Amino acid sequence: MDTPIKVLLVDDHEMVRIGLAAVLGTEDGIEVVGEAGSGAEGIKLALEYRPDVVLMDLVMDGMDGIETTRRLLQQHPDCKVIVLTSFLDDEKMYPVIEAGAFSYLLKTSRASEIAQAIRSAAKGQPVLEAQVATKMMNRFRQPKQEALPHEDLTEREMEVLRLIARGKSNQDVADDLFIGVKTVKFHVTNILAKLGVEDRTQAAIYAFKNGLAE
């Protein structure tokens, strides 16, 4: 007979743990080895029972599911953490995945879906709730915004550009910034090259269009 998949439940709501333990107890090949009502307790029990899979709540009093996942996997890296939560917002979903969560399910999932996710995790196959997968795909499909030319300017070059936009001459810029005229010319040359413009006037226009001029 195959060794059952050892599962640890981590959720600060007792009724949720009771319900999960009841439904998973009817599944062949799955054994709930422990229940934890907090993140700290979850880490302690994980080190004691060495579960194959942990069902992890995200929002808990004290240590949340994100930090619990991170710390648990640092000490028990072979474990697979399946997030089981009611939340689908970016502030929770992406950080816990980055922390090492293997799968992500919503608490609206059917018992059979949770059981299947546990079996898949034990085989090294991650499972994402359909809404989660769609959300992640949409995020990565969003085109990346190209960096604006002025983002390559140094802090000093930005100071020079703002003064150019105010109509200051090289000598005026040198006096205002307490640097040499040759240094100002050097900065102006770099500014024009980075902005892709031909002269000071075009640089000033660029500054005004992009809200860089006072």
Automatic annotation (TrEMBL):
Residues 146-211 form the HTH luxR-type domain. It comes from the Bacteria. GO terms for molecular function: DNA binding. InterPro entries: CheY-like_superfamily, NreC/VraR/RcsB-like_REC, Sig_transdc_resp-reg_receiver, Tscrpt_reg_LuxR_C, WalR-like. Gene3D superfamilies: 3.40.50.2300. PANTHER family: TRANSCRIPTIONAL REGULATORY PROTEIN YDFI (PTHR43214:SF37), TWO-COMPONENT RESPONSE REGULATOR (PTHR43214). This is DNA-binding response regulator. It comes from Paenibacillus contaminans.
